[in-house]
Amino acid sequence: MSIEAIDVARTDGGPLWVSAVSTPEGLEAWWDEPRPHEGGRRCVVRRTPDGRVEDVLPLGWNARNRVIEYGGRSWLPLPGGGLVFTNWADQRVYRMTGGEITPITPEGTARYADLYLPPGRDEIWAVREDHDERDIVALDGTDVTTIVKAQHFVMNPRLSPDGTMVAWIGWDHPNMPWDGTELCVAFLDDPSSRTVIAGGPGEAVVQAEWRDSGSLYAVTDPTGWWNLHVVGLDGDTRNLAPLPVEFGDAVWKLGNTWFAVWGDKLVTLYGTADGRRLGVLDPETGELSDLGGRASWWSSSVAVAGATAVGVAASPYEPSRVTAVDLAGGAHTALSAAKPVPARELVPVPEPTVIEGVHTHLYRAGDAPGPWLVFVHGGPTSSRPPVLDLEIAYFTTRGYGVAQVNYGGSTGYGRAYRERLRHQWGVVDVQDCAKVARGLVEMGLADASRIAVRGGSAGGWTTVAALAHTDVFAGGVAHYAITDPESWAAETHDFESRYLDGLVGPLPETRERYTQRSPLLNASRVNAPCLMMHGLEDAIVDVGQAERFVAELDRHGKEWALLTFPGEQHGWRREETIVAVLEAELDFYEENL
Fold first, then answer.
1. Distance in angstroms (rounded) separating the CA atoms of residues 564 and 575
2. Which tens digit of pLDDT belongs to each residue from 50-83?
3. N or C: which end of the chain has fewer CB within 10 A?
């Protein structure tokens, strides 16, 4: 038996955000979920205290936004059962009350994300982005009022318990939010009183919540690990649990929450890219109690209501499900509907492995040496956890082993591992993937002549760079790939426009590095067939990156194919696209491996 492409499409993705609300009847849990069969929209869902699960957002509405192009927190439940959300089609914010949906932001070019309900105020706060300018605004009726205009990028607006101060996290080019950010506070009636109380060069604050009106809890990494701290308004900082694990992650979407305040304790997510747990931290003693259960991974959203935490849990055998955890007794209750999963014997077991210092998860398809696929994640400042992934099972059930490589530069293993990629993009990531491929051969798992490399976005870059700069792969499949870093930096969106300063080096001073590493400019060296696939509405990596690359491959007589998909952006969201992409990729391996 094999996993079919339609099975992958129908289990693809999981909830991004969760909310928990205490009502007189009990816990009300909210989340959003992908709907590939509904054009790839994200639908907001509610589970009532009596156990009913219902769509809140009607068909035709899509709770997504394009702030920093990757989006951010796109909806929140309102007191009394209403909903506020950002709609993909026009990027406006809407309020839904009693089934009636009305806009609360004007028509125009502005986008909104990181929605927040300041306690004690009848308004909604959000990050507004308009023509590469960002501020924190209050939405009151149809009025939009600026609260904070500070750094080039802002997120995490929070009102102090006494209602007098606002806290936020900000950063400026050329930093990315995992390089260096600032935790700031200011008096609400005097934004010019801004004070930086944590963060700065070489330190990245990724979430903060008020502890009391004189201090905040914050996830930041002065030690090289994203640990939980308490930060006073005078900047005095104390690490609550100095451990070599991550209590946070890279900020690719505005509004992630890795911890929530629960009385005088913190419900928190922690771990490495090999596994993330849920637990309760006592800030006074540093005691960390594990409540993660059998889940191997908890996604970057957690909420608390009463004595219940709500998060998104997954394991190597179970897809992401919204899960409630009794903080007193530790019992787990699955809230979202179970997706159909294949028989357990069809699901490969992940084996966290280190090969020559490179973290990877191996998924075997058999014992005899055979064909293997090296999966390269995007980002590149990201990682892939060992959880159920039917895309991997789609190939392992057809005899292809999979090595999911968390190369140097990946998150989840501390800043030092992340910084291995600094100025070395196109070198360390490529070398690490080659090390894993050679290691598979040395371990007796892989046939050296039948190893391919594949990835999306930055993983697509590593794929085509590996074909140009190594001789270990028999083919490569690149989804929405960057193929030329200098032209990509000039044409991409504002959020990532200076990303390459840290990954390769500043321009024009280091242009020679760009030239040396560019797959486009080294297409003559590509030594294996290449399949490129790209969405035609991709605002992060323009389809021109793929078109120019295959034109160069063709000019040099190389083997290539290019498939494009109307209506798709950066990533595959539609059921029919996911099926077409997987089947094309399988055909490529069948022909070349």
1. 15
2. 999 999 999 999 999 999 999 999 999 999 889 9
3. N
